[in-house]
# Entry
Amino acid sequence: MYASTLVLKAGAQCGSPARWDLCGGPLERVVPTAIFSEDPHVVGTALYDEIVELGYGQSYSSFTRNLRQRELRPKCLSCLGVKSRYTIEINHPPGEEIQFDFTEFPSSPLGPKTSVLVGTLAFSSKARCQIVESQSRGHLIHAIHAICLKLGGTARIWRFDNMAAIRDVYGKQINEVILQAAKYYGVEVVTCGAYSPQRKGVVEKFNHYLAQRWWRTAQLDNHINAQESLDRFCIKVADKRRRPAERLLSIGITPELDSRDRYITPTVAELGLYEKLKAIPAKPFPTTVEVKRIVSQSSLVAYLGNYYSVPLGHLGKQLTIIHHISTDTIDISTKDVGIIATHTLMHPGSKLIKRSDEHRRELERSIFSKGVPRRPHHKKANIAISERSKLEAEALRSNAGDNSIVGYLIQCLILSKQSTTT
# Structure
């Protein structure tokens, strides 16, 4: 019973409303008070209904006031958030750790939701970002390679939170593909515990900074222009942030003094010079990236700022583009047939059209073989009934009630279809 959390004063009797109190009494006179420790969110009305049956005669407001004043309901540590927990500074040696995290932005010209992978070096807070179309495992590995190229190398440890792309199907262990990618780059993968964002606070803080300083005022026309704007922001704005002088002191370097004998705080770019990053392979880890695209009227699909042709007959359909990262080729496939076209990837953002000769001949044959298109029919035109239609109607009247009428109608439909095709 929830009422077991309430305690009677020594000498109080049940059924005596005036003797009820919410203050604790001797343990031998009470039931163990464990309900709040098991469920600190139990509603006060549930407790009040039970103690009224036991003889409590005061109002509900008095009951809740005593609960608050005597602090009988404990604080739920799981719901208080990070601010209620203890924190401590974590010393990150240069080149030891890079923290990755996905951050999502709301609706924009890029689409209903924009995902950005942020990679931040823990020592210098130097960050680079990559816009991705989804948070799949293939997009994650491809974006990590792009970020490491922009940083000039990779740290010894990759730290993630419990994102779905990192974990296996059961969500308990790191996915085998991620472990193979880490082995390919010669790094170690470490994940944070659940509900502990302060363990990778460097990238979490940069996510907030990125949303306020870049996203709110960025000119977003398409993914290519948005990525270029994001790269410029990271170099020209984010790298000029000042960091505490203690970071240089932690590696045995004494910062310069200003006119007031105070340490000159280094910038993120200056701290980044002390990062000891490992070189990454020339080619990214062999993986695939899949995206959905709609076929245009020109039998083209768009990918990374360029357009690629598909066979005739897929206008308006949704196709899947499979990008083979290590081979620089893309396959275009459908659910029913499978792969219908293969192209070599062009330089992103070139706005070029890559159409195979076969696809061009098919499209030209389909367009020019039909000749000059006719003028569309007028919606309010008066079309007189032809003599053939009158004869068919007369035949239907004469054969009314006959079972052969169904067959006759089918023959009429076949003849009309043949006449329209010829």
